[in-house]
Amino acid sequence: FNPDLTTQTADNFEIGVKGAIHASMPLDYELSLFRLDIRNEILPFEVDGFTGRTFYQNAGESSREGIEAAISAEVLPALKASLAWSYIDASFDRFRTATENLDGNKVPGVPSQHLHAELRYDHPAGWFSILDLLYVDDFYADNANLVNIDPYAVSNLRLGYRKELDNWLISPFMSVNNLFNEEYFSNVRINATFGRYYEPAPLRN
Fold first, then answer.
1. 31: which DSSP letter?
2. 66 CB contacts (<8 Å, ≥6 apart)?
3. Helix (H) and strand (E) counts in the chain
4. Averaged in consecutive runs of 10 residues, what is the pLDDT profile of the chain (205 residues)?
5. Which of 52, 46, 38, 50 lies closest to 143 in space, CA to CA?
6. Closest CA relative to residue 117, chosen from 132, 98, 137
7. Mapping DSSP to helix (H, G, I), strand (E, B) and coil, where does residue 133 land?
8. Closest C-alpha to 192, from 140, 150, 152
9. Of the candidates 15, 68, 59, 65, which has an alpha carbon nearest to the alpha carbon of residue 36?
10. How far apart are CA 76 and CA 20, in angstroms?
11. How close are the terminal C-alpha atoms of the chain, in Å?
C-alpha cells in the first residue's frame, strides 16, 4: 500500500477533420492533432525482493503531442484498402526522484509511431480474405531510457466465408497470425527488475 500515490489528471486538446470524397474511388479520411498535459502520471515499477509484484508511482508532469491520420478507399469493386498512422512525442516535463533527474526523458512503453494497413476482399458469393500489417516503432522500457525495445512489423492473413441463414450469420474462417514469422515482444514489463522486461510473442501460428 502506497499512501503517497495520488490521482493522475490530464488536460486534452484536440482538433481534427474527417470526411468522405465521392468520386470514381470512394474515399474516407480523418486527420487530427492532439496534446495532453498530464500531472502525476501513474507508472508501474518493480522492487528487488518482490519478484512478480508490481508497484506504482507518480511521475510529476508529462506531456504527449502528436498527429493521427487514417484513410480508407474502395480500390476496386469488392476490394477495400485502409491505412492508419499515428505519431506521438511523449516526454517527462518534470520528473525527479530521490536519485534521478528524468526531466526530458521519453515516457516508457509509448512507441513514437504506429502504422496499420489492411486489404480486404469480399466476393459476392460470400468468400472473403483480409491481409493486415501492423508496424510499431521502438520505445523505452524504463524511466531512465536505458533499455530500448526494437521496432517490429507483423502481418496476419484471414480467409473465410459468410452466409446468412434466416436469423443466423455463419462465418467460418482460417487465419495465419504472424505470417512472416517475425520475432517481437507481445508485452513489455515497464521498469522491471533483473532485466525481466521481455514477454515474447508467438511465431507463426
1. E
2. 33, 34, 86, 87, 88, 89
3. 0, 16
4. 89 97 89 97 86 86 97 93 98 91 96 98 95 98 96 98 92 97 95 92 97
5. 46
6. 132
7. strand
8. 140
9. 65
10. 17
11. 41
Rg of the chain in Å (alpha carbons): 22
Map residue 3 onto helix, strand or coil: coil
In 49-188, DSSP assigns E strands to 55-58, 61-76, 79-94, 113-122, 127-136, 139-140, 148-149, 152-161, 163-165, 168-170, 173-176, 185-188
Q: What angle do CA 15, 40, 149 make, to 5 degrees?
A: 75
**Residue 84 to residue 73: CA distance in whole angstroms:** 12
Angle at 141 between CA 139 and CA 142, to 5 degrees: 120
